[in-house]
Amino acid sequence: MDIGKYFEVSEAYIRREFKEQYEAGREDMKFKLRRAMWTSAMENNSIAMQIFMAKNYLGMSDKTAVDMTTNLQSVLQECGFEENPVDKTNSEQAQALEDFGIRADSTTTASS
Predict the structure, then answer these.
(1) How far is 84 from 64, CA to CA, in rounded Å?
(2) Which of 11, 59, 65, 76 could bond 81 through an S-S bridge, CB–CB 3.0 to 4.6 Å?
(3) HEC states along 81-109?
(4) Radius of gyration of the chain (CA)
């Protein structure tokens, strides 16, 4: 669209008549941009660019150590609670749940 505006012709005309040149120029631009990014990451010691390149080319990402999709029962078992996370005889388990704003169930009460 910008090229068409510059030459005062329609975008459709540019796409139809100069498709190969446009695509070649776009690929050249992407290559030059990648090279500039690499140079910035390596020579300018740009930490932000190194992180960007690692995420995009090495598949790295910012992930938390805890997978938040794990269900509550599994988390409680890993923390040492018994198999049943809401053991009606264990007020410590019920208290731990309530501390996180989770009601164990209507029959379980936490000791104060």
Answers:
(1) 27
(2) 76
(3) CCCCCCCCCCHHHHHHHHHCCCCCCCCCC
(4) 29
Q: What stretches of the chain show up as alpha helix (H) in DSSP?
A: 2-7, 11-17, 19-43, 47-57, 72-78, 91-99
Same domain, 45 and 87: no
Residues 44 and 17 in one domain: yes
CA–CA distance, 104 with 95 (Å, rounded to integer): 9
Q: Give the domain extent around 74.
A: 64-112
Residues 53 and 78 in one domain: no
Over its length of 112 residues, how does the chain's per-residue pLDDT go in tens digits? 898 999 999 999 998 999 999 999 989 998 888 888 888 888 887 888 888 888 887 888 877 655 555 577 777 777 777 665 454 556 777 777 777 777 766 444 444 4
**Of 38, 68, 36, 71, the residue nearest 53 (C-alpha):** 38
